[in-house]
TrEMBL record:
Descriptive protein name: Altered inheritance of mitochondria protein 32
SUPFAM superfamilies: Thioredoxin-like (SSF52833)
Biased composition (Basic and acidic residues): 113-122, 194-203
Pfam families for this protein: Suc_Fer-like
InterPro entries linked to this entry: Aim32/Apd1-like, Thioredoxin-like_sf
Positions of region (Disordered): 113-143, 178-207
Family: Belongs to the AIM32 family.
PANTHER family registered for this protein in UniProt: ACTIN PATCHES DISTAL PROTEIN 1, ALTERED INHERITANCE OF MITOCHONDRIA PROTEIN 32
Length: 311
C-alpha cells in the first residue's frame, strides 16, 4: 500500500485508460482531470505538500446524469477517506484549481487561500463590471453528497497490466453478485407449521406476511429498485504497490455498521487494501470484511486509518 492522505477517484465511465492516466487523450469533454490535478498537487505543483501525498485514479463509474446532460461535461469524483461524492466540477483550469484548493490543499494552505479569497471579494465590484459571459473562478460551485455505503475499488487497468485487465472484470462481477445477495441464512425459524393463511409458532399465531418477512430478511437486496446493494463496486486505474493482479481497496464510511446494523463496524472510516485477490476469495471478503468488519490478514496489504478528515 503506497503512503497517502487522500484518494481521488475520478468518474470517467470508461473501462480502460492510457498506461499513465495523465497521458490519456480520450477524455470526455476533451479535458484530462487527472492531468490537471497531478499538475496542482503532484511533485512541483502549486498545492503540493510532500507530507500529504494525494492518490489520483480513474474509475469506470459513469458520470452523474446531470453531468452527462451538460454540454460542458463537468467532472465528478469520489473522495476518500472523506467518503464523499463531488460533482459539477468545471472542466477548466480554474475549475480544477477550485476543486484542489477546496478539497485537497493542506489546512494551512486552505487558510492562506481563504484569506486571499476574501481579498478577492473586496474587488467584487470590478468583477461585476466585467462583460457578460466572462465568468470568474468560483462562479460554478461543486455539489457534495455523502457516501453511505462501502466502496469496493478493483484495479482493472488493462493498458498498465494485462493481468489486471483480465482479472479485474472477473472480480467486479463476483463482488457485484455477492453484495447484491442476502447474507447466508443461519438462523431458521424453528417449530413452524403452516395453517391456511397463518403460521403457528409454539402456540402463537401471527399473520403469514409478518413471518415471511422475517424468513426472507435481506432477500430484497436481489431487487435493487427496492433495496440498495451492500456496497458499490467499480474498476479503477493502477493503484500501485501490487506484484500480482487483483488489488482491491475497500473504503468504509464512518457511519458504517456492518452486519445487522446493531453497532459500528470496527472498519468504519477506514480503507482496507487487499492483494492477490482471486474470484474464490470474494465471498469470504464480503462476509468477513464488508459484513463482519474483520480484516482477512493473509490478503491484507495495509489499512488506511482515515484520520480526522475521514467521513
Amino acid at each position: 500500500m503506497p503512503p497517502y492522505v487522500q484518494h481521488v477517484v475520478i468518474r470517467t465511465g470508461k473501462g480502460d485508460w492510457s498506461s499513465k492516466i495523465e497521458d490519456d487523450m480520450e477524455v470526455e469533454g476533451g479535458v484530462n482531470f487527472a492531468r490537471g490535478l497531478k499538475g496542482l498537487v503532484g511533485r512541483g505543483g502549486r498545492l503540493n505538500d510532500p507530507s500529504r501525498p494525494i492518490l489520483i485514479t480513474n474509475s469506470n463509474e459513469p458520470l452523474p446524469y446531470d453531468a452527462q446532460a451538460n454540454q460542458d461535461k463537468f467532472h465528478a469524483v469520489h473522495l476518500y477517506p472523506q467518503n464523499i461524492s463531488v460533482s459539477n466540477i468545471p472542466p477548466t483550469t480554474e475549475g480544477h484549481e477550485q476543486f484542489a484548493e477546496t478539497f485537497l490543499a493542506s489546512p494551512e494552505k486552505r487558510v492562506r487561500l481563504s484569506n486571499a479569497s476574501e481579498r478577492d471579494q473586496e474587488m467584487s465590484s470590478e468583477t461585476a463590471s466585467q462583460p457578460e459571459g466572462k465568468k470568474g473562478k468560483h462562479d460554478s460551485l461543486p455539489s457534495v453528497s455523502q457516501l453511505s455505503y462501502p466502496s469496493i475499488l478493483i484495479c482493472g487497468h488493462n493498458s498498465r497490466d494485462t493481468r489486471c485487465g483480465i482479472l479485474g472484470p472477473l472480480l467486479a462481477t463476483e463482488f457485484k453478485k455477492h453484495v447484491s445477495s442476502p447474507p447466508p441464512f443461519r438462523n431458521p425459524i424453528p417449530n413452524t407449521t403452516r395453517q391456511d393463511d397463518e403460521i403457528k409458532i409454539d402456540g402463537k399465531q401471527q399473520q403469514q406476511q409478518d413471518i415471511l418477512r422475517k424468513e426472507m430478511e435481506g432477500s430484497s437486496r436481489n431487487q435493487p429498485r427496492n433495496q440498495p446493494s451492500l456496497a458499490s463496486v467499480a474498476l479503477i486505474s493502477h493503484i500501485g504497490g501490487h506484484k500480482f493482479a487483483g488489488n482491491v481497496v475497500i473504503y468504509f464510511p464512518k457511519s458504517w455498521r456492518g452486519r445487522g446494523g446493531s453497532g459500528e463496524s470496527e472498519l468504519a472510516g477506514k480503507g482496507v487494501w487487499y492483494g492477490r485477490v482471486e474470484p474464490r476469495h470474494v465471498w469470504g471478503i464480503v462476509e468477513e470484511t464488508v459484513r463482519g468488519g474483520r480484516v482477512v490478514e493473509e490478503l491484507c496489504r495495509g489499512v488506511h486509518h482515515g484520520g480526522e478528515e475521514g467521513g
